[in-house]
Structures are given as structure tokens and as C-alpha cells.
Amino acid sequence: MIFFKKLENLSYFFIIFALTLLLSSCSSLFKEKKDPVTEKKEIWEPNSDARARKHADENPVIIFGDKNKKTSSQDSEFGTSNVLWRATLKSLDFLPLINSDYRGGIIIYDWYSVDNNPKEQIKISVQFLSNELKSDSIKITAHKRTCKTVEGCSSSTIDQNFASSIKDSIINSARTLKVEEAKNQKK
Question: CB 173: neighbour CB atoms within 10 A?
Fold first, then answer.
């Protein structure tokens, strides 16, 4: 009987010892992790809020582009400082905006009904090809949709004269904004 009691105490000791080893080895698995690409050891944070905050701090979301980032000649960045971008938004502010992508340099407007005529609508998209203030820096695409019935609509590209008149309006507005900026800088 004494033998069984000693054996029972010894088995408790081994169980506690084994659990201690298991937990200590598991804690190192959870806290320290090796990156498979860089083979750099990282400490794993068990708190999900702390991990999310660390990730947000290390990878900030850039909305208008990183001014400190060097870009290649092919990668044009468009932001609020771009005079063509601002002139386009100002000239076409009556159109409902669907999508704008500063980095891609494109603004897409939604279908718009002229004089509240729902049977005829126009849609305009503006693509920025460069930052320079000249007429070939932007490309205007305009479409017209004519609906005879709710289901019977047809779309077509509007003639180039219409797109050219919009482009001229944007370029003139950009020149005006550029002159105003120059005046404000001299003050």
C-alpha cells in the first residue's frame, strides 16, 4: 500500500513535470515566431488589439500618396495639389461622382440627365495622362445613353467635339487656378 502511495505521488510529480514542460514549450511557440522568408525571429503578441495596432502603425494607409516616396517617370501621382485634378473637379462639380483614383489618375462620373430628361443621359470619365498643364495631359471619354423604355436603352460614344469642349473647359479652369496660386505665392 505504501508502495502504491509513493507510486501515486511519483505519478503526480511526473504529470506536473510533463505539464510544466509542455506549457513552457508552448509559450515559446506562441511568443516567438520565425518568418519563413526572411528567417527573422519575431515575437508573437497574443493580444489581437495590440497586434492590430502594431500592424496599423507599421503599414499606414496612404490616401493622397506619399510625398516622401520617390516615383519613377511612369508612376504619376495625382493629389489635391495637382491643378488639373482640382480643375476637373471644379468644372464638372454638377455631375454625380462614382469613382476617383488619385494614383491611377482617373475620375469617373455617373449617368447624368440633362434638363431632367430621364430618356437621355450622359456619362463622363476623365483620365490624367501627365501632370503637365496642356491639352494632351487629359483624355475625356463621354457616353450618351438613350432609353425608349425602362429596359430598352442604348449607349454610344458622344462625338469628339463634346469631349473637346469639356477638355477646354478643364484646361481653362486649370490655368485660372494656376494664376491664382502664383498670385497667392507672391503675397
Answer: 19
C-alpha cell at 110: 455617373
pTM over 0.85: no
> Which amino acid would we find at residue 158?
I
Amino acid at 17: F
* Helix (H/G/I), strand (E/B), else coil: 107: strand
User: Could you tell me what percentage of the chain is helix, strand and coil, using 3-state DSSP and rounding each to the nearest 5?
Assistant: 45, 20, 35
What CA–CA distance (Å, rounded) separates 108 from 125?
4
Q: Please, what is the Cα angle at 163 between 162 and 165, to 5 degrees?
A: 65
CA distance linking residue 125 with residue 151, whole number of Å: 24
AA letter at 96:
P
Q: What is the pLDDT of residues 8-47, one digit of tens each?
A: 666 777 788 777 766 666 554 455 666 666 667 767 677 7
CATH topology of domain 83-186: Alpha-D-Glucose-1,6-Bisphosphate; Chain A, domain 4 (3.30.530)
Look at residue 140 and give its three-state secondary structure.
strand
Report the C-alpha gap between 45 and 39 in whole angstroms: 18
Cβ distance 145 to 123 under 8 Å? yes
**Distance (Å, whole) CA 107 – CA 116:** 23
